[in-house]
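Two quick folds needed for the group meeting slides. Do the first one here.
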Amino acid sequence: MPTLTAVIGDSILDTVGDTPLVRLSRIGAGLRPQLLAKLEVFNPGGSIKDRVAIALIEAAERDGKLRPGGTIVEPTSGNTGTGLAIVARLKGYRVMAVMPDKVASEKGDLLRALGAEVVLCPTDVPPDSPRAYYNVADRLTAEIPGAFQPNQYQNPANPQAHYESTGPEIWEQTGGGVTHLVLGVGTGGTVTGTVRYLRERRPDLVVVGADPEGSIYSGGQANVHPYLVEGVGEDFWPSAFDPASVNRWITVSDRDAFLTTRRLAQTEGILAGPSGGMAVHAALQVGAEIGDPRAMVVVILPDGGRAYLSKVYSDAWMRQYGFLSRSGDLTVGDVLRRKREAGELPALVTVQPHYRVREAIALLHEHRVSQLPVVAAEDGSRIVGAIGERGLLKHAAADPGSLDGEIEVVMEPPFPAVSSEDPVREAVELLAGDQQALIVMSGDRAEGLLARADLLEALAS
């Protein structure tokens, strides 16, 4: 009789890691590089923090810092606490998870179901407040006999766990083809350990940190303020984080993070947490900047979305915070998002003044669009002109040789720019005369292009 012992784990902990890597071919439609997502929801606790939880506890046992019957106290946004609770349940430890009150209620319920004790602390207090959840965790650790705080923010076992598992998995799953890594940064353990492994094999790996507005990483100490995305960004610099791991930062608003999270579920069937949506938003921006189809962009989705059903996936909650428009308050950004979710709009495609006209025509046909913004070669975010089928046709008819010239010679003035927050009715008024499209801006970044027909269709519906 064949034996099954080779495929039977000794415990649930044997299922941690080896999470799948999948293509995001729908939300990433129109991008030249491959866009791949590492789905950490497949860990037993539902997040990437399961990897860390095992490493933190085993390191403490080896060092004699955690003894039988001891208490584990950890400041966490929920996912690390869940991983610790699972490991502790099997090893006989008590767990106290100290959490900021902004976390989804489902996370606290899950921790309690696993036998952990949950202590909630206010979010809107300065880092040095005795009520801040880091400081509450420190106080409890000092007061409880036999208590140990793994302290994922400083513990070298945190990045080491990713050096030993997450990095090797990505390298093997991509066949060594990964060129860009995009991820949110919280404690810094994931990026530090994963990147250290990957750069030993590919020194030119480009790493992009997706960061919430209000985090110290991309905004600096002077711009630290509360935000709603959970588990990423910080208001201090953890020692577990090596800042040299990150080549560049992309700051993402709560709104963009939450809307991309919902779009990911609706287009790819992936129910991710908001920090994953934030990372995908940044990855789409990175992918739009890459012209090489051989490039491979990997984005890490650290957890699943079931713990956020009362928040990001709740229309009422989203409207309460102004992330979804109320009836009769349709914005240009809403139209852009709806068209993309329906697969009717590609990611924003741009050309530069030195491109040949024939190259631009090929892009128009490839992406099935009739207009393209022209961006400055030295600053890809600055729009300097526009081209469209109508204008190119006129030039080609007058001088066929212009097709071999540079775009700079035939380009027209830039499209009118509108904010993604502008009402549709006001934006339509800009499309007077021969104007056929608007460039939609989110802050100082171009988000997409909408034609006159798109806006009229939105009004009619």
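Then this one, please, same format:
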Amino acid sequence: MSAFDRISTPQVVVAAVALALVAGAGGYGLARLGQPSATPAPQAKSAERKILYWYDPMLPAERHPGPGKSSMNMDLIPKYADVSGEAGVRIDPASLQNLGGRVVAVTRGTLPSGLTATGVVDFNQRDVAIVQARAAGFVQRVYNRAPGDIVGAGAPLADLLVPEWGGAQAEYLAVRRTGDAGLARAARQRLVLLGMSDGMIDRIDRTGRPQTVVTLSTPTGGVIRTLNVRAGMTVTAGQTLAEVNGLGTVWVNAAIPEALAGQVRAGSPVNVTLAAFPGETFAGRVSTILPETQGETRTLTARIELSNRGGRLKPGMFATVQLGATARPALLVPSEAIIRTGRRTLVMLALDGGRYQPADVRTGREAGGKTEVLAGLAEGEKVVASGQFLIDSEASLSGIAARPIGDSDLPTGGRP
């Protein structure tokens, strides 16, 4: 009899049951090993940021339940529920990068020197002489003058016949012959009141003859701006016959943008260049700033007085004016980083951990793509130079308050 024949039927049944139990336990263990752990799942879920809704930064009022396109056909971005309690708002780095976001550091440097403005050469309106008729009469002769002519001091303009002077001059000569000094002085004073000059009265004394024709001449040299006298015309006492503008100095009226008017003051040195004289610079100073703003161009007029030797500077010439050539150190940020809302001026601070916060700033001069920061930032802080409007929209949606100027690291905005 074989060994198999000696095993009883009950023993075979027990062995089969035991083998089944072992196989079932092994299969259950393999299945448990193939399944992910039940404990980490809730932890991974808790690490995810919850999306409240999707929106377009250009239309923050629109809210969408999922990704897609806005009414402006812009890609929607998620609005996360951020409960970390840290300052600022968190922005997805990928979203900011896709929008061309750029972060730069606040640095100390010097702005490109001065302010450049355009101007026009004009007559010096303080150097104007008026030629008037001192008495009524008739124009006997003119000297071939015309408006625009450049004349010297004492240049004759016209001869004027004044009939009423004849009798007074004859009376004066008769009184002088009497030898009464008192009466002679009174008669001479009468001639002055009639409009005769001391030089003309002296000629009457020398010649002893009445002179009823007077030559009107220019009191100063310059250009004849107006000339209203013709041969044969009748003139009245006090009538303006000519206007002469001096050319020894000229004005340059420079148009200063209203936003930069605070950088210009009376007495500031300027350099003026003209296309007519390439490579030549004319130095001067701002004599005054006119009190009226031009409504059409939103500019103020800075008046600059220049010496005009030889009359080279002609009224009407265009000029380029360089003001405030002295550079000074300043705290600088790119001008594109500045957000002006009309009521305040902001920048977007880049904080640690991918967070951003708006900050109030006070700005100064602007030139060469850089803006001076007078207060609100510290040297070395980082600001968003492009893409900041997306962050500002996100911060507004999240109710993030801007950092006041007094809360910056240094109230003056820089380190020594």
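Slide caption for protein two: The CA atoms of residues 153 and 232 lie 25 Å apart.
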